[in-house]
Every structure is written in C-alpha cells, then in structure tokens.
Design a protein that fits this description.
Blueprint: E1 27-31, H1 33-43, E2 50-54, H2 61-70, H3 76-84, H4 90-100, H5 114-126, H6 129-140, E3 145-148, E4 155-161, E5 171-175, H7 177-181, E6 186-193, H8 201-209, E7 212-215, H9 220-224, H10 226-229, H11 231-239, E8 243-247, H12 262-272, E9 280-283, H13 291-300, E10 304-307, H14 321-333
Parallel strand pairs: 1-2, 1-7, 2-3, 7-8, 8-9, 9-10
Antiparallel strand pairs: 4-5, 4-6
Helix pairs in contact: 1-3, 1-14, 3-4, 5-6, 8-11, 12-13
Subcellular location: Cytoplasm
Main location: cytoplasm
Biased composition (Pro residues): 1-15
C-alpha cells in the first residue's frame, strides 16, 4: 500500500537526510526490550538520524497474547523502542505514558499495554507493519524510526546445558523467547524459526545508508544474537560501509549468560557470526574483570575497547542515558584516547 506519511525532513518518526554542515551520524541500533530502549534513550541525544531495528520473537505477556490471537508481530519491544524515542515535551511524554500504560483488574485486558493494542489496531487498519509504526512515531514526535527485524514473527530455539540431572553435559532444546530467557540451564547455542525470514527493504536500506551500527546492550541470546542469524540482515550488516559498535551489558543475566565474562559475550558473537568485524566495543569498567583480556578479544574482531562509566552508579545494572550518550559521542568521534582508561 502507499506510504501514509509525507516525505521529507522534519516528519516525526522518519530521520531526514543529512543537513548541510551537519555532523550527526546516521545510526542504526539493533536489539530489543530494555537494552535497546537504553541505547535509544542515549543515542537520541547524539543524532536525529536514528533507526531502531527490533527483534520480533517475544512470545510472552501482552505481546504473546496478541501474536497468538491476531497473528501479528509481537508489538511489545517495538512499543518500548518508540517510547524511548518520544519527543521531550509534554505532548511526547504524555503519549509515551499512554503507550506504556498497562491495564489492571481481572478482565481480559489485564496486563495488556495500551501501546500494544494501538499498534495492533493500526496494523489491522493499514495492513502494513512499518506504516503502523511510523504513525505511532508521528504521534509521539519520535526522534527516529522504529522497524521490525523481520516481516514475520520469529521463534527462538536454544540448546541448553544442565537441564538433564542424569546427564548435565547433554544439551536439551528449549523453544520460545520467554523459555530461553528464563531457563535455569546454560544456553550453548540459539537459532531462529523460521531460519530465513523475510526482511523489510526499509531495514536493509537503513543499514546501507548508516554511518554506525550499534549492537546491544540487551538479552544476549534472545535480543542481540538474533540479528546476526537472519541471513538477509546478516548479509546487510556484513556488507554495509558503516562502522560497528557492540555495547556490552552491565551484568550477566540468569540463565542466558550466567558465569559469562565480558570477553565471553564477544566470543559468543564471533561463534554465531564468524564473518562479523567490529570497530568498537563499549563497556563499563564495573562489568569488566580483566580489561586486557577483553581488549585482546575485541582486537581479534578488529575493534578497539572503550571503557566508560555508563551506569547510574547506584549499584543497579541500569544505564544512565547521558553518560551513555557521552560514551557514544566518543565512539563516533574515533578519538578514544587511552581505550582502557575509564572516565
């Protein structure tokens, strides 16, 4: 169907072309859930040429119900990304709160997010997931665009160690994002079902035109790695002229990355995407036990390590948007200074 949004710069939800004299980079951020929302909350302070590419494998909660009942993409992670990009005005913040609101009570709407229902409504009316997301971005005055990673809903299947008490070394297949994210075992490998899903041309174009691609933070096996396992998306990521930055998490995640060192996260990326080359790895010193080991693994992937405090500093594994924005500015400027000196 025809695009419902008028073209040109200044249209909320649609990053415009580089302005004359502008030094703002075109950035594509890959991920899902709270991790992607954290990077977007920071990147919106760095550039207005921002595209979020969001995982579509959620099968739990409100998103899972709508996915099963309506046959739509799971809208929850897409909603969170849109909310992170809302205009910093009373209008934008109010509509963000509307999108994020969850119904209480004991009825069928319990725990549904208003934004999930709104997005699903637009998808049914417009019969175009990207057009529906663009309209919500327009409502929010979003500083960027939000796109689904694939054009169809995905399932994540993992091989998990430690689930068989009689044979702890045997891998057991676990299917579904919620099941994988909450498994008590140790995830050894993941794959997508279907294995070669269609990808929207808008995603491929955004990667082709990007200056930087940011991967992570987020749930490593269920939000970060899936982007590298969609063949068309992986090919575009490998072929883009853009530089690539991996943002590491502030803490390990039960089940998914229990016992992982910072460098193990990069080794998992390399194992699932052997052709992947990086330019920068961004990490908080509190999450790095051995900076030299991490720097060495980063270097093996072609990247330099940038250590910066990007957490709130209150003891919780949460990012500070302004600190993370300052770190991204350092990354994009390519003037790191001493890459192992935390600021």
């Amino acid at each position: 169907m025809s695009d419902p949004l008028p073209p040109g710069p200044g249209t909320p939800g649609r990053p415009g072309p580089r302005r004359r004299g502008s030094t703002a980079p075109a950035v594509v951020a890959l991920g899902g859930g709270h991790g992607l929302a954290a990077s977007l909350s920071a990147l919106r302070h760095v550039t207005d040429r921002l595209t979020a590419v969001v995982t579509v494998a959620d099968d739990g909660g409100s998103s899972g119900r709508l996915r099963r009942e309506l046959g739509v993409l799971p809208p929850g992670d897409l909603r969170m990304a849109l909310s992170a990009l809302c205009d910093d005005s009373e209008w934008g913040r109010t509509w963000r709160d509307v999108l994020q609101h969850r119904f209480d009570g004991d009825g069928e709407l319990r725990e549904h997010a208003t934004g999930n229902l709104l997005i699903s409504t637009l998808w049914q009316l417009l019969d175009d997931p990207v057009a529906g997301l663009d309209w919500v971005a327009r409502l929010l005055g979003a500083r960027g665009r939000v796109l689904p990673m694939a054009a169809v809903p995905l399932d994540i299947e993992a091989d998990v160690l430690g689930l068989d008490p009689a044979d702890p070394g045997r891998t057991v297949p676990v299917r579904g994002q919620v099941a994988v994210a909450s498994t008590p075992g140790r995830v050894a490998a993941v794959r997508l079902v279907p294995g070669d899903p269609p990808v929207r041309p808008e995603v491929l174009r955004a990667l082709q035109e990007a200056d930087w691609v940011v991967l992570g933070p987020g749930s490593w096996f269920t939000s970060v790695l899936p982007h590298l396992m969609v063949p068309a998306l992986a090919a575009a990521l490998h072929g883009t002229r853009a530089r690539r930055c991996v943002t590491l998490n502030l803490a390990v995640q039960p089940g998914e990355t229990d016992g992982f060192s910072a460098e193990a996260h990069l080794e998992v990326l390399a194992a699932h995407a052997p052709e992947l080359r990086l330019d920068a790895v961004l990490a908080d010193p509190v999450a790095v036990e051995d900076p030299q080991a991490l720097a060495d693994v980063a270097a093996s992937l072609g990247a330099r390590l940038l250590l910066r405090q990007v957490s709130l500093g209150d003891g919780t594994p949460r990012h500070d948007a302004l600190r993370l924005a300052a770190a991204y500015r350092d990354v994009f400027s390519s003037t790191y200074g001493d890459v192992q000196e935390a600021r």
